[in-house]
């Protein structure tokens, strides 16, 4: 039988914040870089705060790429990417000029802000979502609820069918994506209070 939710340990920040939030919700989850545990997981979470190239390099150096690809693409294990974790699901990133996991036809680009007095980079703060699709992940989420963002790069998705939510910071950008069992959010549900807890409960129940 599948074991707990595995928070993939790729050596970048925010792993323990995600674990503490699952603990608070009473949802079994553990941080691991052990391929055997990843193989037996019921669901996967790919979090991250940091540099795109470091994320891909760490997944490779820890021998995690093949097992993650098998679990996600072949076994169809649900996976939630958070912030950098979502960006790693794209084909390519400007941050380091690096190839990503390639699960979405998307690129990662630095914010192209015109009004630099009003809009600072990194974007750090609370934004509401414009929900594009009725998905299980966003069930119970209202468009006036706020989620916490902290990032300098964002996803440019070339297939609008993959976008489940967007938001605005001078211009609109992708806040959430989903393709079957593969889900990503640019914001941090683990830092988004009650509305973030709703989202993580929804993911755990998928």
Report on this model:
The chain has one domain (5-204): 3-Layer(aba) Sandwich (Rossmann fold). The strands form 3 sheets. The chain has an 8-stranded mixed beta sheet. It has a 4-stranded mixed beta sheet with strand order 6-5-7-11, covered by helices on one side. Helices cover 25% and strands 31% of the residues. The chain has 206 residues and is an alpha/beta fold.
List how many beta strands DSSP finds.
14
SSE order in H/E notation? EHEHEHHEHEEEEEEEEEEH
Summarize the amount of helix as a percent range.
25-40%
Termini separation (Å)? Answer: 16 Å
Total number of helices: 6
CATH-derived topology: Rossmann fold
Counting structural domains, the number is 1
The name of the CATH superfamily reads Class I glutamine amidotransferase (GATase) domain
Strand order within the widest beta sheet: 2-1-3-4-14-13-12-9
Features:
206 residues; alpha/beta; Rossmann fold; 8-stranded mixed beta sheet; 4-stranded mixed beta sheet
In short:
25% of the residues lie in helices and 31% in strands. The protein is an alpha/beta fold.
Topology, element by element:
Blueprint: E1 5-8, H1 15-25, E2 29-32, H2 35-39, E3 44-46, H3 52-61, H4 65-74, E4 79-82, H5 84-87, E5 92-93, E6 98-99, E7 106-110, E8 123-128, E9 130-131, E10 146-151, E11 153-157, E12 163-169, E13 171-179, E14 182-185, H6 193-204
Parallel strand pairs: 1-2, 1-3, 3-4, 4-14, 5-7
Antiparallel strand pairs: 5-6, 7-11, 8-10, 9-12, 12-13, 13-14
